[in-house]
User: Which sequence fits this backbone?
């Protein structure tokens, strides 16, 4: 009944030429400017900041010092408050639209103890707050106010910002120190640690044999996929019928906070382990094999005799799909129904393609997550490799390719015995099971071991180079967009739509014309920076480094090879992003397990409330991670150059040029998070 | 071999169980009508774009004691019935507010959200129908 009425209202509005999106944001409740800017109280020497909160940001209307009132004109109200250390500030806050909250990193009490609520139609006074520590602090909304609520932030810069200056100088110093270290010409080493050293995890005393038994157990793959399947089933259900506001819905909280952050850590510490447990293509795999547990060869008749096109045997499709997903990310990570739809599509396509084109061609060339996880995991400390390549070369039966009664031939279409990069190894451990000579193992090594020889082999692998550029630029760009104070970028990406969506409200997921136009601006901005601007800068630096090094190789080759040097950098920048997300939003996935659909249940009896963990130190934690990534990246670049030029002095000169770019990127990053 | 088949079946049952997890709530949500206890009415408040008050029509018998539990599901909402003199004030997301009253006059009463909650806030309302004996 109510459904029909809702549809009717919607249709009538549409017929009248209004989308619901064109309805004015009702302003009857808004405080008159006169009341707001006329503060009846005397605050002594404190500054009075007239702050307005709106979906989804904060901006400053006016600042009053003594009796002097500086009003900013409409449209150019700053969203960054600059104060000097020791200033006392009183905030007079109003809400322009819906109920918001107010919380300052490190300065206001925990939102659990005292929540400051800003209702439309009321003026809330907070303070005076004495800003006695310098640095950058964020104003955050503490009341769920709509889909982009988690990203509703403003900035307070307490000058002099020594933290920012010292970390910016620290990036420069770290770059110089790395170069000073490389001056000595370390061969095959990464920041002092030899890349030759590897630990054969399955022969480590104690855990080695246990791990080996687990990985060689036939049921292992099913046992790790099944929980994931259950979680993604809940994700889809929650996406379609759950609460339309993202941070209260399992599909958003678990996928885009918990899963996303965990994957970044997994990439660093466990390679493509996500692909081990990924349930998306699992149904197709089980159908095509007609087994969930045992080994049963995939018959030819089952596959309709279709062949996987060779032109898709690269990362282009995956990386461009990753970019496409990134373009709609403000919707994807805040609208449950969009996430639900994405996973339905991925599971359907994965299942169908596994049946028509077995084995894991979907994972190799189409899955957007598979593309970036595979690419980044080359900087992982984890790898599945053969113990002795010589044995594999001599052993003619090649069970790791053909399969044996114990295990399938590599579903990722690799030659496990000989491969030496993580890109397309999905870590399904079938080779550990099928190898009769016990020659396959898991090796722990230093970050960036494979990069040098991969880079030198990369003659025309533009796909992987562009994956690097997309990942690298978006890593920094998203920290700026989602954790930055610029509400207009968020609004562009969000198409100006300020409500959530589930199946019941899907009809209202229609953006206005202006929203679509703004989204195109956003899309051009994101795609332009990641596909054109940064690659062009990178190409220019490659060209200079060729000149400086007086190298004979052409610029294209140097450009492609050096792009692999970015991978450790990328991993650490995204780990930094993941740390920020976990420390600020840790509560959402936990409560989502207790209340998956956002229907007010509390199955597990949790009493957690949103309360960021030490958010005032985030700028420094994030900057440190990025600087570490930068140092690793400079060293990788050197290793690549050394392998390519076979000469220390040329490699060193080329590396110095690229190091300049990496240091500048690090300073940009530090500016984004701490400046 | 026999052990293999045993595990195959176990795995298959587990997988079908997962499909049940998807199917059951979807069917439950769309096929089974809203069921409320006799004297307690649970109202979930969503922004109007996502459905508003659910349910938005409540039938009450004259002279009977009624307990209404209003829960805000997404953003801050309010709940007020002008004709009955009820105003629960602000209800923050995840919060539940309870009101007990005896409707002693027949008629139709409109309840509204009292907090600006979304662009369609003004449309967020429902009715309490008090029916005589």
Assistant:
């Amino acid at each position: 009944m109510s459904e029909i009425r809702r549809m009717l209202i919607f249709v009538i509005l549409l017929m009248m030429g209004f989308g619901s999106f064109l309805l004015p944001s009702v302003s009857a409740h808004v405080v008159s400017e006169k009341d707001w800017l006329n503060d009846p109280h005397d605050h002594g020497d404190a500054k009075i900041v007239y702050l307005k909160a709106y979906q989804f940001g904060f901006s400053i209307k006016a600042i009053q010092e003594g009796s002097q009132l500086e009003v900013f004109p409409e449209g150019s109200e700053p969203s960054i408050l600059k104060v000097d250390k020791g200033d006392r500030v009183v905030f007079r806050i109003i809400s322009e639209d819906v109920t918001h909250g107010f919380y300052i990193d490190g300065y206001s009490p925990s939102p659990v103890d005292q929540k400051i609520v800003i209702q439309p139609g009321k003026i809330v006074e907070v303070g005076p707050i004495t800003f006695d520590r310098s640095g950058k602090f964020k104003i955050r909304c503490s009341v769920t106010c709509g889909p982009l609520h988690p990203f509703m932030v403003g900035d307070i810069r307490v000058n002099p910002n020594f933290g920012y200056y010292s970390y910016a100088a620290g990036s420069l110093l770290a770059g110089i120190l790395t170069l000073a270290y490389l001056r000595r010409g370390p061969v095959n080493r990464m920041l002092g640690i030899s890349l030759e050293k590897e630990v054969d995890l399955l022969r480590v005393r104690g855990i080695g044999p246990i791990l080996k038994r687990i990985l060689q157990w036939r049921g292992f793959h099913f046992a790790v996929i099944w929980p994931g399947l259950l979680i993604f089933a809940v994700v889809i259900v929650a996406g379609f019928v759950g609460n339309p506001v993202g941070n209260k819905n399992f599909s958003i909280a678990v996928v885009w906070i918990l899963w996303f952050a965990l994957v970044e850590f997994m990439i660093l510490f466990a390679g493509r382990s996500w692909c081990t447990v990924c349930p998306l293509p699992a149904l197709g795999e089980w159908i095509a094999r007609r087994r969930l547990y045992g080994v049963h060869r995939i018959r030819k008749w089952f596959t309709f005799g279709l062949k996987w096109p060779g032109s898709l045997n690269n990362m282009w499709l995956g990386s461009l799909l990753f970019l496409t997903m990134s373009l709609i990310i403000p919707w994807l990570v805040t609208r449950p129904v969009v996430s639900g739809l994405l996973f339905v599509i991925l599971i359907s396509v994965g299942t169908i393609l596994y049946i028509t084109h077995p084995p894991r061609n979907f994972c190799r060339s189409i899955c957007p997550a598979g593309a970036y996880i595979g690419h980044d995991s080359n900087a992982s400390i984890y790898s599945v490799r053969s113990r002795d390549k010589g044995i594999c070369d001599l052993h003619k039966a090649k069970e790791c390719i053909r399969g044996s009664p114990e295990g399938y031939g590599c579903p990722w279409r690799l030659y496990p015995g000989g491969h030496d990069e993580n890109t397309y190894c999905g870590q399904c451990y079938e080779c550990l099971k099928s190898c009769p000579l016990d020659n396959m193992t898991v090796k722990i090594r230093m970050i960036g071991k494979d990069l040098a020889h991969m880079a030198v082999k990369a003659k025309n692998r533009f796909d992987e180079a562009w994956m690097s550029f997309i990942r690298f630029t978006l890593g920094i760009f998203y920290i700026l967009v989602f954790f930055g104070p610029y509400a207009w970028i968020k609004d562009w990406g969000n198409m100006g739509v300020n409500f959530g969506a589930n199946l019941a409200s899907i009809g209202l997921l229609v953006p206005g014309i202006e929203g679509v136009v703004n989204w195109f601006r956003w899309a051009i901005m994101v795609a332009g920076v990641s596909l054109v601007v940064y690659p062009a800068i990178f190409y220019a630096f490659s060209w200079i480094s060729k000149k400086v090094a007086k190298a004979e190789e052409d610029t294209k080759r140097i450009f492609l090879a050096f792009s692999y040097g970015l991978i450790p950098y990328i991993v650490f920048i995204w780990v930094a992003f993941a740390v920020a997300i976990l420390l600020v939003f840790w509560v959402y996935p936990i409560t989502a397990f207790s209340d998956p659909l956002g229907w007010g249940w509390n199955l597990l009896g949790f009493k957690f409330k949103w309360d960021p963990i030490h958010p005032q130190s985030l700028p420094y934690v994030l900057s440190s991670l990025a600087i570490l990534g930068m140092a690793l990246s400079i060293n990788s670049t050197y290793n690549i150059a050394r392998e390519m030029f076979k000469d220390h002095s040329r490699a060193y000169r080329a590396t110095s040029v690229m190091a300049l770019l990496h240091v500048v990127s690090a300073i940009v990053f530090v500016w984004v998070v701490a400046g | 071999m026999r052990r293999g088949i045993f595990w195959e079946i176990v795995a298959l049952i587990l997988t079908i169980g997962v499909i049940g997890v998807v199917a059951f709530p979807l069917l439950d949500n769309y096929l089974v009508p809203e069921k409320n206890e006799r004297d307690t009415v649970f109202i979930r408040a969503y922004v109007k774009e996502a459905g508003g008050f659910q349910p938005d029509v409540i039938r009450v018998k004259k002279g009977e004691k009624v307990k209404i539990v209003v829960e805000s599901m997404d953003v801050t909402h309010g709940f007020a019935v002008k004709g009955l003199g009820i105003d629960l004030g602000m209800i923050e997301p995840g919060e539940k507010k309870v009101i007990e009253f005896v409707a002693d006059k027949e008629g139709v009463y409109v309840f509204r959200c009292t907090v600006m909650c979304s662009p369609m806030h003004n449309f967020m309302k429902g009715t309490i129908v008090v029916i005589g004996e």
User: Anything to note?
Assistant: Chain A has two domains: 33-157, 199-374+450-498+517-674.
